[in-house]
Amino acid sequence: MVSTSIIERLAFLVSFILWGVVASPRGIIVGDWRNLEVSREIIFQPSTVKVTVNVELDCSMCTGPMGYTFLKLPNQPLGHHKVSFFQGLGYVSVVENESGKSLVVEDFGLFGEDRYLKVTLPEAMNKASLNVDMVFGRMYRPLPEEILELEVQKVEYVDAVYWPSPYPTLKESTTIRLMSEEKIERVLPEGSAKVKGKSITYGPYNDIKPYEGLPDLIHVHVSHPFPLPYFAKSSRVVEVSHWGSVSVTGQFELVNEAARLGGEFSRIPFSIDKENPYKVKSCVNEIEAILPRSVRNINYRDAIGNVSCSVVMRGRDGMVIARFPMLGGWKDEFEFSYALPSKTALKVSSSDSHQYVLNVAFNQPFVRVFAQEQVLEVVLPAGATGIRINSPAGLGTFEYIPEGRYSWLDFTTPRRLVRIVSSGLIVPERDALNTKIQIAYHMPTGLGILDKPALLVVYVFALFLAYIVFNRLSLRIVTGKAEASKIDSRAWDFSVSLKVADLFEDLCHVNEKVLKVAKGPVHKLDKAILAQTAAAESLCSKMRLVMGMDPSPVHGSRRYVKVVELGSSEGRYSNTELAKRVVATCEEYAASARALSRSLSKTAISENDAKKYNIVMAEEKSAASKYSDVEELCVNLIQKMEEESRASSARMGYGAGEDKTTDAVGESKKKK
């Protein structure tokens, strides 16, 4: 029994080795691949670094073909950099050269000081030719860290001499390509670097063992006249509505990692618009966003408010210009939002009319800027079930958190929330609108989707119903119907008296116009004005009599009015302030009319001057028309006051003898 168990264990170990896998001391199982040839190209870009690796893999040492392979990235910062290559990895793509197929790349985990990425091959192979494209952010370190405002920035790039790979490499070479604006300051190690123009070549190197990428480093120190922006945090909320549009609201924290300002700040370099020889080249003035053609309601705001200096042109990139220039070490927080029509972002399944598929861009719209942390929240309509998420192909470092959130008109059922978190993201410009995330969900059938419109209709109906009810309610504190009737009567009297006062004021303005035009005696006008004056004086006396206001003797140039309260033996009306206003207005008109009459009688005008004569006659006709309106309102007011006076006398117990004054006024009005 013992010998049999030993034989079984040895057979399992031999088969394990023959199948070409070895358990490394670092805790990860890798295949027995060999890198026949590795060609690495490092391309400097304004704020990112692109690394393209062509690798020829061979599995001839294996007893069978392999269906996967591994890539390795250092998880520790190199040199004095703040971030590692894995932390700065924003994009990775692996293509099989022979078939041209894109392969699936997954984060396999951290083992020791390295991070492994698993690449799944289209099928089990003995040989493979792969093209690996990677884009890294935050790979430049300003050196020196502080510069003057107009000084040219210099940066340092640090990388491993050998491409980090878990497999042995037979032959390898590395080429670094600079931009035309950059100038080489220093290259280390000096002996192995070949500098030619804007390119630096290392190698070729032969027989490189695995795990030898960290000891020897490449240091490239160049002038870099570009800003180094990145998003410390990018948070976007996509809210789906079947009744309107899909709204996208993003909160961004933009940081310029360029060399900090070491001296004084001056606005002069930013105040010159054209042909400015003093440009601050390490300053972030604007960033570009790529948006779908169907977007609308674009809004760009910061902590102060709306920023109106941004530019959006259909068919081209949208340009977001910050409120202030961002020098090295500065940051800005802003909000960028827009809306998409539901028909472009939301599709209905052909097999099921209640199955919807949402397609939204996974990356933030500023594609040339690296995002250290990105949070994408998708708020689905209330009642959505059967949610399925299809993330874009690539590095799978996403986290799905199903939650609920209440929004507009959500009272019973919350909206479904899907949060997708990723660390390190940048999408090439060519794939900006193609890298999308798909979320499929099912909506209820029948009248389930009509609950919110029905609730809105009920709310509007209840609002109008409440208005009708409150409009018919009386919130006044009264003791009986008699007092309520008295309050209503006073309110009506007050409104009519205000109208009378306004019309009398208009008459005064008309009389002033007549006075300015007239330049001689016009006897026809004198008669009309005298008639108006007499009618006004008669009206004033009637109103005084009805309101219980008796004129006192004149002292000097002032007339004193004695006001008698309702209920006394001398008066019939209690609203003394109203009575004062009406009587004073009538007296003002009478005085104005008398003054006009005296002025016209003293001036001289020839009746042959037909033009001026016609003007005066037109103005007088307008005055007479307005006076007729005033007189009619005053008569109505007097009639109502008489009725109120009689009713009040009956309630207060006045005799017939006490109402003689009111009856006399009624007779006078009927005669008129």
Walk me through the structure:
- GO terms for molecular function: transferase activity.
- Component of the oligosaccharyltransferase (OST) complex.
- InterPro entries: Ribophorin_I.
- Pfam families: Ribophorin_I.
- By secondary structure, the chain is of the alpha+beta class.
- It folds into three domains: 28-223, Immunoglobulin-like, CATH 2.60.40; 230-266 and 279-442, tricorn interacting facor f3 domain (Immunoglobulin-like), CATH 2.60.40; 484-671, no CATH class.
- 28% of the residues lie in helices and 37% in strands.
- The strands form eight sheets. A ten-stranded mixed β-sheet has the order 5-8-7-6-9-4-3-13-16-15, with no helix packed on it.
- A hairpin with a 5-residue loop joins strand 6 (89-96) and strand 7 (102-111).
- The chain is elongated and about 125 Å long.
Alpha-carbon distance between the termini?
Answer: 141 Å
Number of helices: 9
CATH class of the largest domain: Mainly Beta
CATH superfamily of the largest domain: tricorn interacting facor f3 domain
What is the general shape?
elongated
Q: How large a portion of the residues is in β-strands, by DSSP E?
A: 35-45%
Instruction: Look at the structure and give the mean pLDDT.
Output: 73
- Helical fraction equals 25-40%
Which stretches of 5+ consecutive residues score pLDDT under 50? 1-28, 519-523, 548-576, 601-608, 654-672
Subcellular location: Endoplasmic reticulum membrane
Subunit structure: Component of the oligosaccharyltransferase (OST) complex.
Keywords: Endoplasmic reticulum, Membrane, Signal, Transferase, Transmembrane, Transmembrane helix
Membrane topology: Single-pass type I membrane protein
